[in-house]
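Hey, I'm writing a tutorial for new members on how sequence and structure tokens pair up, and I'd like a real worked example in the thread rather than a made-up one. If someone can provide the structure for the chain below, I'll link this post from the tutorial.
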Amino acid sequence: MTGLLNRIIAIGGTTAHQVPKSPETVRKDYIDGPECITAVVAEGAGRVLGWQAIGWWEGDAHIGTFVDPGCQARGIGAGLFARTLIEARAAGIATIHASIRADNVPGLAYYARIGFVDYAFDPDFALKDGRRVGRVSRRFDLR
């Protein structure tokens, strides 16, 4: 999971993360830390093809999705979300939030395709390096 996330960070453009993560940080932030709710992984050919996690952030359940750039638009994200929905419902989550860079065209398309709807927009959201990319906030209601 760490290797995939760090490849996505290195490529840039589809995540607000700009600094590579350690395996310990990925584990704490996405798998079994105190703020983690769910985590699902898609594997194939002996490697991680994608993963999705929900965790508490600012009082809301937020989702993060990371799919190998060479495997996007092949149903991996939809498969992850189907499994995530089962776990989210079992955890009693009413609403899943997604915060997406406004310049992340594939991410915006993915979350729209699986049923997330816009509820806020921050045109001034900036990355750590100062670039303003904007941020779209979307949600998926489970009830």
